[in-house]
TrEMBL record:
Protein name, as recorded: Ribonuclease J
UniProt-listed InterPro entries: Metallo-B-lactamas, RibonucZ/Hydroxyglut_hydro, RMMBL, RNase_J_2, RNase_J_b_CASP, RNase_J_C
UniProt entry tagged with the keyword Membrane: no
Gene3D superfamilies: 3.10.20.580, Metallo-hydrolase/oxidoreductase, Ribonuclease Z/Hydroxyacylglutathione hydrolase-like
UniProt KW NAD keyword: no
Top-level taxon of origin: Bacteria
Length: 557
């Protein structure tokens, strides 16, 4: 039973207006006593240029941290890092049960929760088709096709209505590993009456249907069978269907499979535990590479996104301890570069080509397919579900805007354009954004988390652009400068535009500034620091054309 005060709300804290860091809240009840569930808790990857020194980003969950006594659980749609990768870092702030299928649970335990110092997360295994009830919510995991096994949409039922959160999905009748997206299951939900469909937007700008994993498997079989020498395949470590396809292709032509990379090893172990690699022989260790004939081996390598410490990058630099390639060997990129990674991937490809290695990508062969739906697949989903409201998620602004137009073209009466922090009332009344809450990003900097207001990142950007000048000055209590100031320049060119050494320009600026100050002013340490800072930055700008960061310290003696 609902009361006049009961509301059903949707609140994304990550993954809406961006790719990655997926975290969505659903709340039910009166405003002051609302109970919440979270769907997914993922991370994103920071670019070195935009975020120097930072590898990982997480959604800011401070809104629900303040209400954690009312948070009933975290429900995982699937085991990709942009959906589970923040759990080990952020779960201690929430401390609620995490519900996931066996594959996601095992991979989470192996990949994130097996690290030293990881929290003891309360994980509860969910079987698709079995309903989970927590507080006022009833949740069904509905299997869908995606590029990792055991992916699910989640049907969320409350007294105010049914919401379907699709997660990541596609239509693939032959997925090689994992589930198919069942028209009957979604039609049944549509017949029940869907208040809102919260749906993946990633490939809404692409026409047609996504090719099947089975088509990729056929291509891999051909390319591996035809290769005259060694074959190395790089793909997302989590793509069990691709791993199986490579292994079956190798088996068909009498080749051994060697798996290389910790992430690959972890996924393979979990996939075997869950039965997704049944019927295939165990893979060999990387130290077997040199002992096997060139025409009898296939390597599965991590590093499809150009990660500098991953196996493929090390092979391309010729510094991997076990795996080396030679002219005539073949490398297959069974992946597509995520936006922002193109330069790193391109550098690896160029290094391999310079060594005489043949490189095959999805530009010339069907060696990769997306795990997200194109427009014709989305037409099917909307026809099955017939929602009263569409809320586009999982995409950048371009994808969300195009999805909104697409949903209206499918006859959906109400489309809500949400962003991270948008509090959407789904019921009662017309679904709409009713307010905005704090939403942002946290950055993993070394072993600490910092928020997007921390000064460290913008200061590092500035240092990367214009370097640093460091000045230390000793002044006694009478305002007398003692000795010569200690001056160093870091990250500046040796000489300015006229050929003058930049260090001399800095020394002259400091010396002239101090000489021009009275003893009274020299007694004011803070004033000296500000005056010298301005003089140094001005002098360097005149000589170089850039203003560096400047650190001036006055030591009072």
């Amino acid at each position: 039973m609902t009361t006049k005060q009961d509301e059903l709300v949707f609140l994304p804290l990550g993954g809406v207006g961006e790719i990655g860091m997926n975290a969505a809240l659903y709340g039910f009840g009166p405003e002051k006593g609302r109970k919440w569930i979270m769907v997914d808790c993922g991370m994103g990857f920071a670019g070195e240029e935009a975020m120097p020194g930072v590898d990982l980003m997480f959604p800011d969950l401070s809104f629900i941290e303040e209400r954690r006594k009312d948070l009933l659980g975290i429900f995982i749609t699937h085991a990709h890092e942009d959906h589970i990768g923040a759990i080990s870092e952020l779960w201690p702030r929430l401390k609620v049960p995490v519900y996931a299928t066996r594959f996601a649970k095992n991979l989470l335990e192996t990949r994130r929760l097996g690290e030293p110092g990881a929290p003891k997360v309360e994980l509860r295994e969910v079987k698709p088709g079995k309903r989970v009830t927590v507080g006022p919510f009833e949740l069904d995991f509905v299997p869908v096709s995606h590029s990792i096994p055991e992916s699910n949409a989640i049907a969320i039922r409350t007294a105010a209505g049914l919401v379907v959160h699709t997660g990541d999905w596609k239509i693939d009748p032959t997925p090689v590993a994992g589930s198919v997206t069942s028209p009957e299951a979604f039609r049944a939900l549509g017949d029940e009456g869907i208040l809102a469909l919260v749906c993946d937007s990633t490939n809404v700008v692409r026409e047609g249907f996504s090719p099947s994993e089975a088509e990729v498997a056929q291509t891999m079989r051909k390319l591996i069978a035809e290769a005259p020498h060694r074959v190395a395949v790089t793909t997302f470590a989590s793509n069990v269907a691709r791993i199986r396809a490579v292994a079956e292709a190798a088996q068909a032509c009498g080749r051994e499979v060697i798996a290389v990379g910790r992430a690959m090893d972890r996924v393979i172990d979990v996939a075997r535990e869950c039965g997704y690699l049944d019927g295939l022989p165990d893979f060999r260790r990387s130290d077997s590479w040199k002992s096997l004939p060139r025409e009898k081996v296939v390597a599965l390598l991590t590093g499809s996104q150009g990660e500098p410490r991953a196996a493929l990058a090390r092979v391309s630099r010729r510094d991997h301890p076990d795996i080396q390639l030679a002219g005539g060997d073949r490398v297959i990129f069974s992946s597509r570069a995520i936006p922002g990674n193109e330069r790193d991937v391109g550098a690896i490809i160029n290094d391999l080509i310079e060594q005489g290695v043949e490189v095959i990508t999805d530009r010339t062969e069907l060696v990769h397919v997306s795990g997200h739906p194109r427009r014709d697949e989305m037409v099917e989903m909307y026809a099955w579900t017939r929602p009263g409201t569409a809320i586009p998620v999982h995409g950048e602004a371009l994808h969300l805007d195009e999805h909104a137009r697409f949903a209206r073209a499918q006859g959906v009466q109400n489309v809500v354009k949400a962003r991270n922090g948008s509090l959407v009332r789904l019921a009662p009344g017309k679904p709409e954004v009713i307010s905005h809450v704090k939403a942002g990003r946290l950055f993993k900097d070394g072993n600490v988390l910092i928020d997007d207001k921390d000064r460290a990142i913008p200061e590092r950007r500035k240092l990367a652009q214009a370097g640093l000048v460091s000045v230390a000055i000793a002044i006694d209590e009478d305002g007398v400068v003692l000795g010569e100031p200690a001056i160093d320049i870091i990250g500046l060119p040796n000489r300015g535009r006229t050929g003058e050494p930049l260090i001399e320009a800095v020394v002259d600026a400091v010396t002239d500034t101090l000489a021009g100050m009275s003893k009274g002013k020299l007694k004011d340490s803070e004033g000296v620091e500000k005056t010298v800072d301005r003089a140094v930055r001005t002098a360097v700008n005149e000589a170089w054309g850039k203003k560096p960061a400047c650190h001036v310290q006055v030591v009072e003696v």
